[in-house]
Design a protein that fits this description.
The complex is a heterodimer of chains A (770) and B (220).
Chain A lengths: L1 H12 L2 H34 L8 E4 L5 H12 L6 E14 L2 E8 L19 H4 L2 E5 L13 E6 L5 E5 H8 L7 E6 L6 H6 L3 H5 L14 E2 H4 L1 H38 L1 H9 L4 H33 L9 H27 L7 H21 L3 H30 L8 H16 L1 H35 L4 E4 L6 H5 L4 E14 L2 E8 L3 H6 L11 E4 H7 L6 E4 L7 E9 L8 E5 L9 E9 L4 H11 L4 E4 H15 L1 H39 L3 H43 L9 H27 L4
Parallel strand pairs in A: 3-6, 4-5, 11-15, 12-14
Antiparallel strand pairs in A: 1-7, 1-8, 2-3, 2-7, 4-6, 9-16, 9-17, 10-11, 10-16, 12-15, 13-14
Chain B lengths: L2 E12 L2 E13 L4 E5 L6 H8 L7 E6 L8 E2 L5 H11 E4 L11 H12 L5 H10 L15 H13 L5 E5 L7 H18 L2 E5 L11 E4 L2
Parallel strand pairs in B: 3-8, 3-9, 6-7, 7-8
Antiparallel strand pairs in B: 1-2, 1-4, 4-5
The chains are: A alpha+beta (770), B alpha/beta (220).
């Protein structure tokens, strides 16, 4: 056994390029897994776990807002109804106007559920909050805010979410809602079996659509907290999407390990036969190969851990080396890498023994089609959407790729270009395609994913930019605008109109919603894309509200604003709100009976040539207000858009890189046969340049076929991303735009990568053929 | 004299140092001779053949080949890479022990490849006829991998002489064949040498060529 291991080791180091490529492959895949896991965990932690409601699983809205209703409910619970609930807190919520902004304030009765473990960042909630009539300010952007004298800030805590937390009595006083309670948050006694999975893969419970078992109580509407609080599902969906994308790199890597091992076994078939004739068992040979793969994965995991740690440090995603998520991420990468590599090795070893029969293939197709149908029509979960993507990939592997190879098998003997050189090129491409089938599949999967993501992002970009164009016509916005007098600005030269926007929070039957009140006239209708129906009186809702309420245009919307009688108005328009985590309702200002909202924003319609002068005057007159031109806001939005998809693009690029290295590896393995052919052609009179041209042409043809192969799958993935993933994850509808220019980039990237991967071995080895 | 090898030496890297594979070899070959280069394994037969065919350059010495219609001998040492390539393409046919045929071309296409490269399409019919005479008519549309070793070598010879080169070099052409096929291949080489009047140089350790050889160079 020792000698076998030594022999295997010498074989490995005798091919340094193959070894380096394989290691690079594994390192990249494991790096993707680690980064995606930590990024997903950080996202969930910052947006969800830092919220006070993260300790509670259900919410009971109190429709009359009376304290007595809460106590009645609490008494029923104490009497033994709802035995699954082990704790509850009454909550009041609203907005405070601070420096012209509406800042959410959450008031909780901190003593009513003393066992609650609020995970709010660095420390528990201090008890002084109960006694000192003060608030804790959360959110990085509140650190420099000047608070009015009646709001005592006990401490500032950093975080992505901006809100204030207070004891319920303090909150009621600050909101002017003495004696009112909005809801009761309930703590459930059972830990879900799936909760531990969230540690293994952030966002998985959202993706799988797991919901806590329904609990009910007569006369009360009990809602799951993640439905009530849409941020949770939003970030969970992002984490789930990223996690699956990270898995892609490992999947592609698995194909590469398989291909590489199969090549090695093929190359050394005679040697292994000889070994068996002298008494070495198949198990021993297989063990050596498994040992080799495991060592490579272990070494790669170590390198990947270091690389990902540095990357995460540089991107400020992790600050402490011993952070649990990083350790889980590294272990997860290691386990996945080992499993993938071992499966790859075992399958590669058994490849010659048995091939899939027709029945198995047909069965595979039937199962894939069933999965596709399930994912598209029979479920509304994000997981279902990815089942559909997986089914498409299976169909790509078991139907499309073999069908293309068979088609080429049938067509190529008939296809006879006049030039013999062209015949060599076409047939060599075909041979390469067959010999490196798994590298080709891995490559086409990666390119298809890149195509899918590029098409989806570009479609979203098109729709988002159209939305920005409509939503932000030429003009200026003033934020923190409570002290700005619109009457004065209306007098200024170049100002056509000053529009006022009031913001706050309201409650729908499905949970809290952001509310914007303004004058809904022709101008506003145009901004929200409702030019044809501008005269009707009613509310506009974003797609999230419409989807969660299952409401259509014409349906009545019941909205409750703090300290106001419920409003009931028909929905007259459903608008897109890309990037918005929350529900949004746009109300006509004249339909809001009292004024529980904060006028925090003004939109100034300015003649284009007067924008600069009006902006200057505004800054001079209202130095504390934030004045932004719509052009600036658009630029910011575009920057955020690009930043949002930077990690997605990075992971897709890693998958492509893994696949490219795989192609390089297979081209390297096939190069020895190629070298003999090139030596012959050189003898026949081919110059080095002519041989390079041959190799280049063959690589380009192979890359072209790979790209062509990945095109249907890429468009299929893009369709699922636009039609299923985005609506299910974020309630955004995106129209898929398949523009040739958009397809061009990933195709060109794929083609160049394939050519490079195939030509490099030639360049390396043709200098020193063996 | 059609081949003149004068004081030729060639070295190759060997581990950390270098090793002279052939040293100070000189000989002449007269027109239409069938020359055999003999010697034990590792003595440098293949290296010498590659040197004469212009596939590698000597470190010392000079190699001259005399073409039928030229005014004087062509020194391979003085040809640049492009000229050497053209010379090889136009005037030399080569048969290896293994891998003589382009795997992605059919047998007939392999035979026609030198004609396409040298633009001697007028020899097409003769080349195809030769292929048929060699018993490969039924295999003309087969790919090399579908042929036996003997059939592949026959096709290789048909390919090597298709453009009727003045020099035909063969490096252990029967090294991979049984006795029957070996004899057939040597006869074939001899027949083509006779018919076309080419200058045949074969590197081999087989004795079967002995009956055909008009000149033997023994490397020790």
């Amino acid at each position: 056994m020792k000698l076998l291991i030594r022999s295997q080791w010498r074989d490995l180091i005798s091919r340094p390029l193959v070894l380096i490529a394989l290691l690079a492959n594994l390192v990249l895949a494991l790096f993707a897994i680690s980064v995606v896991h930590v990024a997903g965990h950080t996202l969930v932690h910052e947006y969800v776990e830092g919220q006070p409601q993260s300790a509670y699983q259900y919410v009971v809205p109190l429709t009359d807002n009376r304290e007595s209703s809460y106590f009645t409910f609490r008494e029923r619970w104490r009497a033994g109804e709802l035995p699954e609930v082990v704790g509850m807190v009454p909550v009041v919520e609203g907005n405070l106007e601070i420096s012209g902004r509406a800042i959410p304030l959450i008031g909780i009765d901190l003593v009513s559920d003393s066992q609650a473990m609020f995970d709010l960042g660095d420390a528990q909630i201090p008890t002084t909050l109960v006694t000192q009539d003060s608030v804790i300010a959360f959110g990085d952007d509140l650190a420099n805010t000047s608070f009015p004298n009646d709001i005592k800030v006990l401490e500032f805590r950093s975080g992505e979410q901006t809100f204030l937390l207070a004891d319920i009595a303090t909150a009621q006083n600050l909101l002017g809602r003495t004696g009112e309670i909005d809801a009761a948050w309930l703590r459930y006694n059972r830990v879900r079996a799936w909760d531990w999975m969230e540690h293994l893969s952030p966002g998985i419970t959202t993706g799988l659509g797991f919901s806590r078992p329904e609990i009910s109580l007569a006369d009360h509407n009990i809602e799951p907290m993640d439905v009530w609080q849409p941020t949770q599902t939003f970030v969970g969906s992002i984490a789930f999407n990223m996690g699956l994308l990270g898995m892609l790199a490992v999947l592609v890597s698995g194909f590469i390990v398989y291909e590489s091992t199969a090549r090695s076994i093929e190359r050394r078939a005679q040697e292994f036969d000889r070994l068996q004739t002298i008494g070495v068992s198949v198990l021993q040979i297989r063990s050596v190969l498994i040992l080799e793969a495991s060592t490579l994965v272990l070494f790669s995991a170590l390198v990947a851990a270091v690389v990902s740690f540095v990357f995460l440090q540089l991107n400020d995603l992790i600050r402490d080396v011993l952070k649990t998520p990083f350790l889980i991420a590294t272990s997860k990468g290691l386990v996945l890498g080992l499993s993938t590599a071992l499966i790859g090795v075992i399958l590669a070893f058994n490849r010659e023994v048995r091939k899939a029969s027709w029945i198995e293939l047909v069965l595979g197709v039937v199962v894939a089609v069933a999965m596709l149908c399930y994912g598209i029509w029979m479920t509304t979960t994000l997981f279902g959407a990815y089942v559909a993507v997986f089914a498409l990939c299976v169909l790509h592997i078991v139907v499309l790729t073999p069908a293309l190879i068979r088609l080429l098998d049938a067509l190529l003997p008939r296809f006879k270009p006049k030039s013999l050189i062209s015949r060599i090129n076409v047939r060599a491409m075909w041979l390469h395609l067959k010999q490196a089938k798994f590298a080709t599949i891995a490559f086409s999967l990666a390119i298809a994913t890149a195509i899918g993501i590029t098409l989806m992002v570009s479609s979203l970009r098109t729709d988002f930019f159209e939305l920005l164009e409509a939503r932000l016509p030429s003009g200026l916005q003033i934020r923190e605008a409570s002290n700005v007098d619109p009457k004065i600005i209306r007098q200024w030269t170049g100002v056509d109109e000053v529009r006022e926007y009031f913001r706050g929070e309201g409650t729908l039957s499905v949970g809290k919603t952001n509310v914007i009140a303004t004058s809904i006239d022709e101008y506003e209708a145009r901004r929200y894309g409702n030019e044809n129906d501008a005269d009707r009186v009613g509310v506009y809702v974003n797609e999230k509200v419409a989807a969660q309420l299952r409401a259509n245009i014409g349906d009545e919307l019941e909205l409750k604003l703090p300290s106001a009688t419920p409003i009931s108005l028909p929905i007259i328009h459903i608008f897109k709100s890309y990037g918005e985590m929350s529900r949004v309702v746009l109300l006509p200002k004249d339909q809001v009976p009292s004024n529980p909202l904060v006028r925090d924003r003004l939109l100034i319609v300015v003649q284009p040539d007067a924008i600069a002068s009006v902006e200057r005057r505004l800054n001079e007159k209202y130095p504390s207000a934030t004045v932004l031109s719509h052009g600036e806001i658009r630029e910011r939005a575009v920057r955020i858009f690009n930043r949002t998809f930077a990690l997605t693009n990075l992971i897709a690029l890693i998958a492509v890189m893994v696949a490219v290295i795989g192609l390089f590896n297979s081209a390297l393995a096939l190069q020895s046969a190629k070298n003999a052919e090139y030596r012959l052609l050189n003898t026949l009179g081919f110059s080095r340049f002519a041989l390079f041209r041959q190799s280049f042409t063959q690589s380009t043809l192979h890359g072209g076929v790979c790209c062509l192969l990945s095109l249907p799958l890429g468009i299929g993935i893009a369709w699922i991303l636009c039609e299923l993933v985005n609506p299910r994850a974020f309630h955004w509808t995106i129209s898929l735009h398949v523009a040739p220019t958009t397809l061009g980039f990933p195709l060109l990237l794929g083609l160049s990568a394939a050519v490079l991967a195939s030509i490099l071995p030639w360049l390396f080895l043709s200098r020193n053929p063996k | 004299m059609v081949i003149h090898v004068q004081g030729v030496s060639k070295k190759f890297p060997d581990g950390k140092g270098e090793r002279w594979v052939i040293e100070d070899v000189s000989f002449k070959v007269e027109p239409h001779q069938a020359t055999v280069i003999r010697g034990p394994s590792g003595v440098g037969k293949t290296t010498l053949l590659n040197l004469i065919a212009g596939l590698i350059h000597p470190d010392k010495g000079e190699i001259e080949l005399n073409l039928k219609d030229s005014s004087g001998p062509t020194s391979l040492n003085r040809l640049n890479a492009r000229e050497l390539l053209r010379f090889r393409r136009d005037h030399i046919g080569f048969v290896y022990q293994f891998f003589n045929l382009v795997p992605t071309l059919t047998v007939q296409e392999n035979v026609l490849l030198p004609l396409a490269l040298t633009k001697r399409e007028h020899l097409r019919e003769q080349a195809i006829d030769r292929l048929h005479k060699l018993g490969l008519k039924s295999h003309k549309n087969a790919f090399p991998a579908q042929l036996s070793g003997g059939e592949q070598q026959r096709a290789a010879i048909a390919r090597a002489v298709a453009h009727e080169p003045q020099f035909l070099f063969a490096d252990e052409p029967t090294g991979n064949l049984d006795a029957e096929n070996s004899a057939a291949v040597f006869k074939l080489l001899w027949d083509e040498h006779e018919r076309l009047g080419t200058n045949l140089v074969v590197a081999t350790h087989s004795d079967d060529i002995g009956t055909y050889a008009t000149r033997t160079i023994q490397l020790t």
